[in-house]
Write a structure and sequence with these properties.
Blueprint (H helix, E strand, L loop, with lengths): L3 E2 L3 E4 L4 H4 L9 H8 L7 H4 L14 H16 L3 E3 L5 E8 L2 E11 H5 L3 E2 L6 H14 L1 E2 L3 E5 L3 H10 L6 E4 L5 E7 L2 H12 L4 E5 L1 H14 L9 E8 L4 E3 L1 E5 L7 H8 L3 E6 L10 E6 L2 E7 L14 H14 L10 E5 L3 H10 L5 E5 L4 H9 L10 E3 L8 E3 L2
Parallel strand pairs: 6-11, 8-12
Antiparallel strand pairs: 1-5, 2-3, 2-21, 4-5, 4-10, 5-12, 7-21, 8-11, 9-10, 13-20, 14-18, 14-19, 15-17, 16-17, 16-19
Length: 408
């Protein structure tokens, strides 16, 4: 089997996309999903967050939730809201957020190559979240949430995707978030063969977001028997050129000063960092520098260069430098996955959110970070290592409901 292959996509019928397209299942809680889907009977949230159609107090992992997902999925198809292409295709997908745009390929990626680490990972997964995605796939007999992948520099693929997205898209919809999602069908056999061949030349491609979805797809494949010709031996993916992808900062807020006074805190930080007061909000513009908001004052923190382990792809990440050189030794937070004294704020919320969390008294101090770079993510994956939690915040988010991969 090739690294990627075309598939018969299930997508909104002509004129229906605006009724269907929804945010990814994991960016909204149940209450937010209920509110967003109100008055929208064909919103894909009824499939990806089916608890919204059940009593408010239901456990989102209840068997009835997955049964409802299958019921809603079938109803949407029977009503002609979603239709399936007659033959296998690729799809060009463009996402536009403000001045930023990226154009990638919707394809079915090989479970075998995921298992062998040719499709490379950089995160641990949690069994409960994997189980949830497995049950969702089995309930609807489809993969409905795409895995976000990145491919290394390949100008020929970039050119093909640019040419494929020159004409009128079959879907052009702007989501409530303001992100514009556009889709073109690639059904020319020669172009399909060229894309398949070019991807087969890659030594590796990289998971950016969707580790639980890809792990769940692998589990479903093995449970059903990984016949390479079967639809379940591949998983729904959107693959962008790595140089077009946008990672925002993933910032930290901490609930208390670990018993330190402001002066004691600054003194301890000064052992590893140079400290400079700033007149306004500070968002770092280079690696190994950090913003800190404390008592209404912003500071620029620059880690002393000799403390940067340049040869270690994980420990040289800014999220690691801040954890190893400040958060753990000064605040005593050794496990950010479980310590309730620390929280994380995606850069999409801006510096104002960091100030708000501290000024309200909810948190004592905030730290802004330089965004992780795609090259750093790829280096970690190539080393078969794992990134620290909350290292990347990708924008724009992919849409659910744009294309699904049916497993029959």
């Amino acid at each position: 089997m090739s690294l990627i292959r075309p598939f018969r996509g299930l997508r909104p019928a002509a004129g229906q996309a605006e009724k269907v397209v929804a945010p990814p299942y994991d960016v909204l809680n149940s209450a937010e999903a209920r509110q967003q889907a109100e008055g929208k009977p064909w919103s894909f949230l009824h499939i990806s967050k089916p608890e919204i159609d059940l009593p408010d107090d239901i456990d989102p992992y209840d068997d009835a939730v997955y049964a409802k997902a299958g019921e809603n999925f079938r109803k949407t198809i029977e009503a002609g809201i979603l239709v399936r292409d007659a033959r296998p295709c690729y799809y060009a997908y463009r996402a536009i957020m403000g001045e930023h745009q990226q154009t990638g390929l919707v394809a079915a990626a090989s479970v075998r190559d995921y298992d062998s680490n040719r499709i490379r990972k950089h995160e641990f997964t949690r069994p409960k979240k994997e189980d949830d995605r497995v049950r969702q796939i089995e309930a609807v007999n489809a993969q409905t949430g795409p895995v976000l992948l990145a491919y290394p520099d390949q100008p020929d693929i970039d050119r093909i995707l640019a040419e494929a997205s020159e004409g009128e898209p079959v879907i052009d919809v702007t989501a409530d978030s303001g992100v514009r999602h556009m889709l073109w069908v690639i059904d020319d056999e020669a172009t399909i063969e060229d894309l398949t061949r070019l991807f087969d030349d890659f030594k590796a491609i990289y998971i950016a977001d969707g580790h639980h979805r890809s792990a769940a797809a692998s589990r479903v494949c093995h449970a059903r028997g990984c016949d390479e010709d079967a639809p379940h031996s591949a998983f729904l993916s959107v693959i962008f050129p790595h140089h077009q992808m946008k990672i925002l900062d993933y910032n930290r807020v901490i609930r208390d000063l670990n018993g330190l006074s402001r002066e004691e805190l600054l003194e301890q930080i000064g052992e590893n960092f140079t400290i400079e007061e700033k007149t306004g909000a500070f968002s770092p513009d280079q690696p190994a520098t950090f913003g800190m908001y404390l008592d209404g004052q912003w500071y620029r923190l620059a880690l002393k260069p000799e403390l940067i382990p340049k040869e270690d792809p994980v420990r040289r990440l800014d999220v690691s430098l801040l954890a190893d050189r400040l958060i753990e030794p000064v605040f005593g937070i050794s496990d950010p996955r479980t310590d309730e004294r620390i929280d994380f704020v995606g850069g999409i919320r801006g510096m104002g959110e960091l100030e708000r969390r501290v000024d309200s008294g909810e948190m004592a101090v905030a730290f802004s970070l330089f965004p992780t770079r795609m090259e750093d993510l790829m280096a970690v994956a190539d080393a078969n290592e794992v990134m620290p939690p909350k290292s990347t915040w990708f924008e724009p988010k992919l849409a659910d409901g744009l294309v699904s991969h049916v497993l029959d």
